[in-house]
TrEMBL record, chain A:
Residues 1-34 are annotated as: Disordered. It comes from Scheffersomyces spartinae. The keyword Cytoplasm applies. Residues 40-170 form the Exoribonuclease phosphorolytic domain. Keywords: Cytoplasm, Exosome, Nucleus, RNA-binding, rRNA processing. The gene is MTR3. This is 3'-5'-exoribonuclease.
UniProtKB/TrEMBL annotation, chain B:
GO terms for biological process: exonucleolytic trimming to generate mature 3'-end of 5.8S rRNA from tricistronic rRNA transcript (SSU-rRNA, 5.8S rRNA, LSU-rRNA); TRAMP-dependent tRNA surveillance pathway. Transmembrane segments: none annotated. SUPFAM superfamilies: Ribosomal protein S5 domain 2-like (SSF54211). The lineage of its organism: Eukaryota, Fungi, Dikarya, Ascomycota, Saccharomycotina. This is Ribosomal RNA-processing protein 43. One of its GO terms (cellular component) is cytoplasmic exosome (RNase complex).
Length: 252, 317
């Protein structure tokens, strides 16, 4: 049924896949062993309790935190967290039409939620909800697909953590995330997407590197690849964390 | 017992008694958002390059915190014949104001989208002819040829459909004027790709123009709408060059509070306490008014005159 509350295009409209004529490719990085440089800022949306904005390569991510807000209904002794992730309509997602919420968005949102729930002191917020809204404002010209989702998720987690800090919600630690790729030929690439074994690890560096989120995809030649990918992801998370720390300190 | 008077700081007063806070501010000659009564907040608009699925768009910055992004997407449909005889076209906007909730659109989102949809049509921003897909081109090997005129043999006509997705972040007051500005600039810069078919799509692929007999008439073979191709290197502007530029249609908002006209109302205190809000669309560098709409209590003629003078000063600066 058509949505009568919104002004949608006539029913017989066909939306073709048009694309930009000149595709600009991401500039290759100097080294494969360091994370990409990123731009981070927070407190940009006034009517949210906390917000942050992150640019890395061609990704532009914005996170907003609303809460703690009271919820209706019976008493609960702890708060709950909900995460929504949305790609701006112009970002092409492979294998989905732009009309419904895509599988990629769901997967990112549930991963972020898993990481955050473990870091927020939910006991401090009884009968309340903390709502996180993530908007992906820009991505590569050729869209987002399975191979890019992990790298994007890593930066989304980092961005969201800063928004949580900005909102003043009490946390055990700032969750930071690292992502690595062990390519088919066995080479290790930090913060890069591609074919091979991809690992995404979210940790709380100040709590003895406690792992709060882990996501591995792809194929590997042996078990050593797994430990290598995981160790270097944690390494990247720590590098990112020290950058976030210095940002938060100069912000004071 | 002596009762002490507790002073209430202005931000708190703005929450509990917005009208009182606003009138106290105005006595001092400055508004809660630190503007003078006739001042407009800075707006800057940047055009977005087509990328991915979008054929254009723009981003608007209003003050320090409001950001609005719009992206235009292209669709195509069969011409409805006499149903499409309107002189002026429009776009299909979907508007979302980020407010930390999900679900059905709010009244504000629905009415803003409806208003934009209608006013683009009424103000003849888009010529309906520009939404008609011109003669279809034919790709033969690597070149695409476009016939000069509409081919008599072509049985189906097509029209472009433009949808706009508008995302508002950090809403700080009534939005229609901002959305109008943003959309006019996006539409002015928007370009539509020409449409062609691949020669292979015709039955009998060796033929340059596939035709078949229908009775005693030659008819060009129809291809499905899905197999039409878009020529991104050959584009036609949506707004004909030389015709009045949409971005010259400026929209301003005003509020009336206790008989006083306030320009560009912004912030919670002003929005809650004004008696009416009205929008004015006028042409830049001329006194032609294209549209006035009022929300709330009726507005005096003198208020409109005052508003027009303010908008003139803002338009020329």
């Amino acid at each position: 049924m058509s949505d009568r509350r919104r002004i949608t295009a006539p029913g017989n409209t066909y939306f073709p896949r048009v694309g930009a004529e000149n595709k600009t490719s991401t500039r290759p990085r100097d080294s494969n062993n360091t994370p990409a440089s990123f731009y981070l800022t927070s407190n940009i949306v006034l009517n949210a309790n906390g917000s942050s904005y992150l640019e890395v390569d061609k990704f532009i991510i914005q996170a907003q935190v609303f809460g703690p807000r009271p919820i209706k209904g019976s008493y609960m002794d702890r708060g709950c967290v909900s995460v929504e992730c949305k790609f701006l309509s112009l970002i092409r997602q492979n294998g989905s039409d732009s009309k419904s919420m895509s599988g990629l968005e769901h997967r990112i949102a549930s991963f972020v939620e898993t990481c955050l729930v473990l870091s927020i002191l939910l006991d401090k917020y009884p009968k309340s909800t903390i709502d996180v809204f993530i908007n992906v404002l820009a991505a590569d010209d050729d869209g987002i697909d399975e191979s890019k989702i992990q790298r994007l998720t890593a930066w989304i987690v980092n961005c969201t953590s800063v928004a949580i800090v900005d909102s003043g919600i009490e946390v055990k630690d700032i969750v930071t995330c690292g992502q690595t790729l062990v390519g088919d030929e066995g080479t290790l690439k930090v913060d890069l997407q591609g074919r091979g074994l991809q690992a995404l690890v979210a940790i709380m560096p100040m709590r003895n590197d406690e792992i709060v989120g882990l996501w591995m995809d792809g194929s590997s030649k042996g078990t050593t690849d797994y430990s290598l990918a995981m160790a270097s992801s944690i390494e990247m998370a720590k590098t990112v964390r020290s950058n976030i720390n210095s940002y938060l300190l100069q912000d004071q | 017992m002596e009762l002490k008077q507790t002073p209430i700081p202005l931000p708190v007063l703005g929450r509990v008694q917005p009208r009182l806070a606003l009138s106290r501010h105005l006595e001092l000659g400055v508004r809660p958002n630190l503007k003078t009564p006739t001042e407009f907040t800075n707006i800057s608009v940047d055009v977005l390059e087509p990328s991915g699925e979008s054929i254009g768009g723009s981003i608007l910055r209003y003050g320090s915190h409001t950001r609005i992004i719009t992206t235009l997407a292209l669709g195509i449909r069969e011409d409805g014949g006499h149903l499409d005889n309107d002189a002026s076209g429009t776009i299909y906007p979907i508007l979302e104001i980020s407010r930390g909730r999900v679900g059905a659109p709010t009244d504000e989102e629905m009415s803003l989208a409806q208003k934009l949809f209608e006013l683009i049509k009424i103000n003849k921003v888009i010529d309906s002819n520009n939404l008609r897909v011109g003669p279809l081109g034919t790709q033969i090997e690597s070149t695409i040829e476009y016939p000069e005129e509409e081919d008599e043999l072509q049985t189906k006509r097509y029209r472009y459909v433009i949808t706009a997705n508008i995302q508002v972040f950090g809403r700080s007051g009534p939005l229609f004027d901002l959305i109008w500005r943003l959309m006019m600039i996006a539409l002015e810069q928007c370009q539509l790709p020409r449409v062609y078919q691949e020669a292979n799509d015709f039955k009998g692929s060796q033929m340059r123009v596939a035709v078949r007999m229908r009775g005693r008439q030659l008819v060009k073979e129809d291809v499905g709408i899905e197999s039409l191709k878009f020529d991104m290197s050959n584009k036609i502007p949506l707004v004909t060059p030389g015709s009045p530029r949409p971005s010259l249609l400026l929209c301003f908002k005003f509020g009336v509070f206790e008989g006083q006209v306030l320009s560009d109302i912004e912030g919670e205190v002003e929005e809650l306490s004004v008696d009416s809000v009205f929008y004015l669309i006028r042409e830049e560098n001329s006194s032609v008014i294209r549209h006035i709409s009022v929300q709330g209590k009726a507005v005096d003629y003198s208020h409109l005159v005052a508003a027009l003078a303010m908008s003139g000063a803002a338009g020329t600066s």
